[in-house]
Amino acid sequence: MKYFFTILTILLSFNSLSFAQEFSKQELDSIKSHIFNIQNEVNTIQLNLNNAKKTLKTGIFVATLGYTVTIIGGQLLGTNPQLGEALLYTGGAIGIGGTIVLVNGFNKISLERKQTDFNPTQ
What we know:
rod-shaped, single chain
């Protein structure tokens, strides 16, 4: 009888160990899956930042060019009013266009936070 209980105890302990290993494998697979998802999100963010960088540089260049033309037009108002006025309007329109490109660049950076089902306390 003593041997029976010893064997029964050993078998039950092996059974509980195998269950614990299965649970750990499931957790490991879940963690691997979440790490893979996080890596994909980081790659997407880096791509968005790279695209936004190009857009922001273009927007800064166009806006600077437009407002420079506006300043030149303002300087010419005293000596050549017709040309100065035309440059004021043209430079303002170019500057507004550059500002719109800048806003689009900032919109590429803005990311909404996603809700995840990962809970590390589980």
